[in-house]
Amino acid sequence: MSFDYSASLGNTRFENPIFTASGCASSGRELSQFFDIRQLGAIVTKSIMVKPRSGRATPRMAETPSGMLNSIGLQGPGVDIFLEKDIPWLLEQNVPTVVSIAGESVEDYAVLARKMRGISGLKALEVNISCPNVENRGQVFACNSTTARAAIEAVRRNIGGELPIIAKLTPDVTNIVEIAEEVVAAGADGLALINTVLGMVIDTNTMRPKLAGKTGGLSGPAIRPVAVRAIYQVHAALPHVSILGMGGVSNGRDALELILAGASAVSIGTANFGNPSATMLVKRELEELLISKGFSSLKEAVGYAHRAEQL
Amino acid sequence: MNKFAEQVVAEVVSNKRVGAYHHMVLSVGDLANHAKPGNFVAISVGGAGSSMVLRRAFAIYRATGRESGVGYIELVVAPHGQGSTWLTSRSAGDGVDLVGPLGTAFGIPTQPVRALLVGGGYGSAPLFGLSEVLKSRGCRVDMVLGASSAMKIYAPLEGKRSVNSLTITTDDGSTGIPGKVSDVIPELIENNQIDIIYSCGPMGMLEAITKIAVEKDVMHQCAIEESMACGIGICMTCVLPIKGEDGVIRMLRSCIDGPVVNGENVIWDSNREIPEGTWGAL
Predict the structure, then answer these.
(1) Which residue of A has its CA nearest to B1?
(2) Which among A95, B30, B122, B199 has most CB atoms closer than 10 A?
(3) Rounded-to-integer distance, Cα A5 and Cα A7, Å
(4) Distance (Å, whole) CA B49 – CA A148
(5) Is the predicted pLDDT of residue A138 greater than 60, yes or no?
(6) Alpha-carbon gap: B5 to the closest alpha carbon of chain A (Å)
(7) A60 touching chain B per CB within 8 A
């Protein structure tokens, strides 16, 4: 019997469940030097904004125990240059592509969705409503169910067609299930869980925050239990909504943990920094683990940790 | 992106303490053949399951053994953090996960020129290989090395032989001329009619050299040192503001567009802020 490694997010099928995480693989070119990126379930691009963006000042990074704090501030070329340079390259490589978009206003999300609707060949759209590195925390749409809903509705209204939309949420809220229910009601086909966790490092030599942006997003193995918890809670409440899981996955065992909690596919982020071929390692190890545990398909294992509660 | 970059398990061939530093030789195979002065490598530290999740970047001191399939990369490592201390405690025969060669290289002039090489602390490492290349092109090479104290000057014997003159400065005067490298550079430029400065070391030193180079109207290529998470262009943490040929300032990745850049194009005094007018600034 052959093992079925395919994954589904909404109605879209992927050859395998291992994706890159947005902001951790640029637009694919750099990693393509280290492995065949067509072997990925999908590449999720960095979050694209309406206009070019310099990002935040430096220092932007601090290593932390089993993780890192970053404050990039969504540096990028803006949607027009992205559509002119990065998208044609990705489609030419024939790599399954999920574009991530981020806005500063509801109108930005509408504009970005309209720009994306014309592109044939995209597999899905990730709507990043939870980047922690914006000037005003009030602008983190996913911190509030009203703004989260407005951003997703704007995308839903403007995207047209069949392209599934995946809302990326932050764990930095009192009740992530409530936000998840809100964005699904607004038209999200899937959820990306989780974005980084807001943190701070103080340099004890200068005795000031180490990052120029003061706060940053914590990522890496340090946040994996937070990801597992968020995925588990949301999958329990919304078992029919696909989850793209992420947060500190660097090997097959870690990926299995997220799958068992309820993720249908898994994104690799910070692990790419430490190991450019991390995605291929996770892909190989996860498949071996699933087979060794007797699963005949990936889909059988999705949410398997919930089974005791369903008895 | 350096098109020759690959990920290999490198074997530690030797690891010797030299003053405050460790001189390490790693067997890396073919990639050594593509390493140029100024390039760097990114090494995974701490072993499997380590809490240190990011690679550490090290300038290549020398690349040798150029027969097919056999190649060595030499590094000069200062064990001042947890990661570099782990690396310097490796023994011969141990394997380390290495990505390289990465980044840009020092530009080598086509004509014989008069070059001044300036290194701060272990920043002197890539300058000896550069000196050998420049000498082979018929250039005159003068070198200045500076550090806080004598222990922190890295100047091996074979390195000293590859230059026409060597000037040493230390902050505490424990060897050479007391003071900073920038104290002695103006006179060296005048006396030796320097055409180009190549430098590597702490950012403050590179900024000071840039000022002198601009004043004296001498070209200046420097290898910058920004903290990096990945070394391969995907994390966007190692950026710094650099003015392009079109006059526009952009936040460029020091791992891809650097580490070697033209000193006068760098906006050195941005001090934890995005310089006004930078492309995409809010």
Answers:
(1) A30
(2) B199
(3) 7
(4) 37
(5) no
(6) 8
(7) yes
- Residue A1 belongs to some domain of the structure: no
The closest CB to that of A57, out of B5, B236, B273, belongs to: B273
B18 touches chain A (CB under 8 A): no
Domain count within chain A: 1
Domain presence at residue A93 = yes
- Sequence length of chain A is 311
Q: Does residue A67 carry a pLDDT above 60? A: yes
| Residue A2 lies inside a defined structural domain of this protein | no
- Cβ neighbours of residue A92 closer than 8 Å, sequence gap 6 or more: none
Whichever domain contains A217, its CATH number is 3.20.20.70
Q: Which CATH number fits domain B114-225: 2.40.30.10, 3.40.50.2300, 3.40.640.10, 3.40.50.80?
A: 3.40.50.80
B48 interfaces chain A, CB cutoff of 8 Å: no
- Give me the torsion for CA of B240, A208, A74, A13, rounded to 10°: 120
Residue A161 pLDDT level (bands cut at 50, 70, 90)? confident
Query: Out of B1, B238, B280, whose CB is closest to A33?
Result: B1
Report pTM: 0.95
Q: Which residues of A touch B226 (CB under 8 A)?
A: 58
CB A98 within 8 Å of CB A166: yes
- Residue A66: pLDDT band (50, 70, 90) is very high
Question: Quick one: average pLDDT of B243-248?
Answer: 94
Mean local confidence (pLDDT), B221-240: 94
- Are B55 and A274 within 8 A, CB to CB? yes
Beta bridge partners of A199: A216
Q: Give the start-to-end residue ranges of the domains of chain B.
A: 6-102, 114-225, 227-282
The whole-angstrom separation of Cα A148 and Cα A303 is 25
Structural domain boundaries, residue A222: 7-310
Amino acid B181 reads V
Mutate which: A20, A22, A24, A26, vs B, most B CBs within 10 A: A26
Q: Considering only the top CATH level, what class is B6-102?
A: mainly beta
Using a 10 angstrom Cβ sphere, with 0-12 exposed, 13-18 middle and 19 or more buried, the burial of residue A237 is middle
Is A143 domain-assigned? Answer: yes
Query: Is the ipTM above a cut-off of 0.95?
Result: no
Q: Looking at CA atoms only, how far is residue B123 from chain A in angstroms? A: 21
Contact across the interface for A53 and B55, Cβ inside 8 Å: no
Nearest chain B residue to A278 by CA distance is B7
Mean pLDDT, range B66-88, rounded to an integer: 90
User: Is residue A135 pLDDT above 70, yes or no?
Assistant: no
Nearest-by-Cβ selection for A274 from B5, B53, B236: B53
Residue B251 forms contact with A (CB below 8 Å): yes
